[in-house]
């Protein structure tokens, strides 16, 4: 039996990334792997320990790349426009090679390793003049791709042809906006993929001279076989000297420029072609390298075309053959059967116990007289039929090596001695007694391990439950507290295990608070009385104005700002198990009203219309004036003092007072001092206005004998100066009579006494 391995890590990665890989349009895959193989020859049987010579012979019609044949094959091209554009660098950063003349592109990764003249490559460089190179030193991106080869033929030592494929190479010019393309793509699937570089409708240099003369061609590299194809759809001719006479070379050349394989008639000069495919097939003598393996263990056991083995048990061997630079690996396997080799086998009888387990082994081996046991727990025996005691429950691999001299055989068997008995209670550790009347139903899950268990539950609330299965136990608790659950299990062997678990039942949550009042004036304190259960873990007041208070009983709070007129006071109480208990109560905050009755004023009754006092301000919802009226204004008809109180709520109020004086009046002094130094009291009619609102006036002064000593009707008079007939009158009491008419037509007569002082 022989097989072929195609191994290429780069190929695998490339195929994985090229999800748009296509099958070739023509069925033109030249893979000749069907006739490449390696075969092992030798004896297929051996006595125990006897040597056997195995030899390998490799055969392949895939030649090495030391030499090539050049043949014409049927024209079968791939698409001339691939999915990828090679890039180059002319000092402006990466640009399409299609836009440049006489340049090389960046190295393009190949989907598989490719052998060319005895060397393996993983990338290639595409040139703008119809060639592909493996010279990564001289032909780098942006460097010149030579074009003038009119007088030479291949081989010729130069940087453009060395280590390259000319398919064909000529002075073409991939000028932008002329409909030309230089592209590459990968077609097919492993192990027969093709890397295709294409030049589509590329004109000759220069376009102004050569007109529409074009070439459409491609270079194809085939996976594993290292075969190269040149496909020419059409190659037209331009004989202009500017295009170097359209000289073209079609062939391949080694790195030293000493060996070339060319297409007949296409090694220079002017020529045309169309619908042709020329193939370069490696035909060099192939050498094989052989590596031998133990096919059962994978261990390498030798190299060379033959190997001597001495198996002591039936063994399968493998050889892998490789061919020089090729990626193609062949392998074959060969089994050597050892006659009368020992065959190891045994039986076992298991006796389980609560602490130790015992296994009695019975040897059933053939062609053996010596035995070595390994019991899998670190213990060994050399007896034929041992009995072994296992002190720990586990899975054990028992190994028996049966031997006869150098020949031996090994057998392993696995025994699962895990039969633990383990009492396990599964349930939540804590519960909330949300409703003491309904209680807390609790499921106690029996997760014990063991065979045929009998379970006994004893619960500290007095319940005892015995079950022959692992069904859960249901119980209901009506009071808070800590309850202990005890579980004992017994398996079919009579082994016993027990465990217990505490379950905590949290008390029913509650909390509340009351407010002294829920309508307050801004800046006034609000008092809280709370009821918090002693089993609460913590409690927090949130007053709705960014202020919180934790674990503080019966707080008071003052709202000093009016960010919200309707804050909510929330009490959140936390418990050990039960969910938070939240109580919220709204509060309404009122502002104090602002109030102003204005400045004190005067008016003239009967002349000035009734004076209206307005309670100017904000937030007043009701008003109370001095006379008990409740409107927001008061009409004044008489001089006097007026006041009002504005209420927002009964507790939020403000007051103001205004004095309304009389505008029509007369002021009469009761004494004056003509000889004094006080200018205001020298006359009986002071300099400070004595009248207001008067339109006519007459004042008579009489002495005690009734004699008229002074009369004036001048409102602007300075008054009586205490003289009569030019003489000072004596100190004493005098009588005045004043008649006034005010601007509201009111007439007044004032009679009284005034004292003259000296």
Low-confidence stretches: 4-27
Major sheet details = 7 strands, antiparallel
> Beta-sheet strand percentage?
over 45%
Q: Using the alpha-carbon principal axes, give the shape.
A: elongated
- How many separate structural domains? 6
Structure classification? mainly beta
Radius of gyration: 61 Å
Strand element count? 65
> What is the straight-line distance between the termini?
162 Å
Mean model confidence by pLDDT: 86
Number of helices: 2
Share of helix, binned: under 10%
Description:
This protein has 758 residues and is mostly beta strands. The chain has 6 domains: 65-284, no CATH class; 346-416, Immunoglobulins (Immunoglobulin-like, Sandwich); 425-506, Immunoglobulin-like (Sandwich), CATH 2.60.40; 512-590, Immunoglobulin-like, CATH 2.60.40.10; 594-662, Sandwich (Immunoglobulin-like), CATH 2.60.40; 665-756, Immunoglobulin-like (Sandwich), CATH 2.60.40. A hairpin with a 5-residue loop joins β27 (370-374) and β28.
In short:
With 758 residues, this protein is mainly beta.
What is the element layout, followed by pairings?
Elements: E1 2-6, H1 9-17, E2 37-41, E3 45-46, E4 52-59, E5 64-73, E6 87-89, E7 94-96, E8 108-116, E9 119-126, E10 131-133, E11 164-170, E12 172-173, E13 181-187, E14 194-204, H2 207-210, E15 214-222, E16 228-235, E17 248-253, E18 260-267, E19 273-284, E20 288-294, E21 300-303, E22 306-309, E23 315-323, E24 328-338, E25 346-351, E26 357-363, E27 370-374, E28 380-381, E29 387-390, E30 395-404, E31 407-416, E32 425-426, E33 430-432, E34 440-446, E35 454-459, E36 464-467, E37 473-477, E38 481-490, E39 496-506, E40 512-515, E41 519-521, E42 525-531, E43 538-542, E44 548-550, E45 556-558, E46 568-574, E47 581-586, E48 588-590, E49 594-596, E50 601-603, E51 611-614, E52 616-618, E53 622-625, E54 633-636, E55 640-649, E56 652-662, E57 665-666, E58 671-672, E59 691-692, E60 694-702, E61 708-712, E62 723-724, E63 727-728, E64 732-742, E65 747-756
């Amino acid at each position: 039996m022989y097989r072929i391995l195609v191994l290429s890590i780069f190929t695998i990665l490339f195929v994985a990334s090229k999800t748009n890989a296509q099958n070739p349009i023509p069925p033109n895959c030249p893979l000749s792997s069907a006739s490449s193989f390696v075969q092992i020859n030798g004896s297929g049987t051996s006595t125990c320990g006897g040597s056997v010579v195995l030899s390998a012979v490799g055969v392949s019609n895939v030649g090495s790349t030391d030499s090539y044949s050049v043949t014409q094959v049927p024209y079968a091209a791939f698409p001339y426009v691939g999915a990828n554009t090679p890039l180059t660098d002319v000092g402006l950063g990466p640009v399409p090679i299609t836009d440049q003349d006489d340049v090389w592109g960046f190295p393009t990764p190949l989907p598989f390793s490719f052998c060319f003249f005895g060397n393996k490559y993983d990338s290639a460089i595409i040139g703008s003049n119809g060639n592909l190179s493996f010279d990564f030193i001289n032909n780098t991106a942006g460097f010149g791709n030579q074009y003038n080869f009119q007088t030479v033929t291949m081989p010729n030592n130069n940087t453009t042809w060395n280590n390259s494929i000319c398919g064909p190479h000529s002075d073409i010019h991939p000028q932008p906006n002329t409909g030309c393309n230089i592209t590459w793509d990968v077609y097919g699937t492993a192990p027969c993929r093709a890397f295709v570089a294409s030049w589509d409708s590329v004109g000759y240099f220069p376009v102004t001279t050569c007109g529409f003369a074009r070439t459409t061609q491609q270079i194809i590299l085939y996976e594993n076989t290292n075969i190269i194809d040149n496909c020419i759809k059409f190659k037209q001719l331009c004989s202009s000297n500017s295009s170097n006479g359209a000289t073209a070379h079609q062939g391949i050349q080694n790195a030293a420029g000493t060996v070339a394989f060319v297409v007949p008639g296409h090694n220079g000069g002017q020529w045309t072609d169309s619908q042709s495919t020329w193939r370069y097939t490696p035909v060099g003598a192939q050498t094989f390298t052989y590596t031998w393996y133990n096919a059962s263990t994978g261990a390498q056991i030798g190299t060379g075309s033959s190997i001597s083995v001495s198996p002591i048990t039936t063994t399968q061997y493998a050889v892998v053959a490789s061919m020089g630079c090729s990626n193609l690996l062949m392998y074959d396997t060969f089994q050597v059967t050892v006659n009368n080799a020992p065959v190891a086998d045994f039986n076992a009888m298991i006796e389980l116990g609560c602490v130790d387990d015992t296994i009695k082994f019975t040897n059933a081996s053939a062609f053996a007289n010596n035995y070595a046991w390994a019991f899998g727990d670190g213990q060994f025996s050399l007896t034929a039929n041992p009995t072994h005691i296992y002190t720990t429950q586990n899975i054990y691999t028992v190994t028996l090596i049966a031997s006869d001299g150098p020949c031996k055989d090994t057998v392993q068997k696995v025994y699962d001695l895990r039969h633990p008995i383990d009492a396990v209670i599964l349930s939540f550790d804590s519960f909330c007694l949300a409703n003491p009347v309904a209680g807390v139903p609790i499921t106690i899950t029996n997760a014990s391990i063991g065979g045929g268990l009998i379970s006994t539950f004893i619960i500290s609330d007095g319940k005892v439950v015995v079950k022959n299965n692992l069904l859960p136990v249901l119980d209901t608790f009506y009071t808070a507290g800590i309850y202990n659950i005890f579980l004992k299990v017994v398996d079919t062997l009579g082994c016993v295990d027990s465990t217990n678990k505490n379950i905590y039942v949290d008390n029913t949550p509650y909390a509340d608070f009351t407010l002294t009042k829920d309508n307050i004036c801004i800046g006034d304190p609000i008092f809280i009385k709370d009821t918090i259960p002693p089993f609460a873990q913590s409690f927090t007041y949130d007053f709705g104005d960014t202020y919180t208070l934790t674990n503080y009983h019966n707080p008071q709070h003052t709202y000093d700002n009016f960010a919200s007129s309707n804050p909510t006071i929330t009490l959140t109480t936390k418990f050990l198990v039960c969910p938070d208990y939240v109580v919220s109560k709204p509060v309404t905050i009122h502002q104090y009203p602002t109030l102003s009755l204005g400045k004190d004023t005067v008016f003239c009754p009967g002349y000035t219309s009734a004076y209206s006092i307005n309670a100017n301000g904000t937030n007043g919802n009701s008003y109370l004036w001095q006379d008990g009226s409740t409107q927001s204004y008061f009409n004044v008809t008489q001089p006097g003092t007026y006041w009002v109180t504005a209420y927002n709520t009964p507790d939020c109020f403000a007051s103001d007072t205004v004095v309304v004086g009389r505008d029509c009046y007369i002021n009469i002094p009761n004494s004056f001092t003509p000889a004094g130094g006080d200018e205001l009291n020298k006359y009986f009619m002071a300099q400070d206005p004595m009248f207001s609102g008067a339109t006519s006036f007459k004042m008579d002064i009489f002495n005690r004998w009734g004699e008229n000593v002074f009369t004036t009707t001048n409102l602007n008079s300075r008054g009586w100066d205490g003289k009569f007939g030019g003489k000072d009158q004596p100190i004493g009491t005098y009588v005045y009579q004043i008649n006034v008419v005010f601007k509201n037509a009111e007439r007044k007569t004032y009679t009284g006494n005034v004292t003259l002082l000296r």
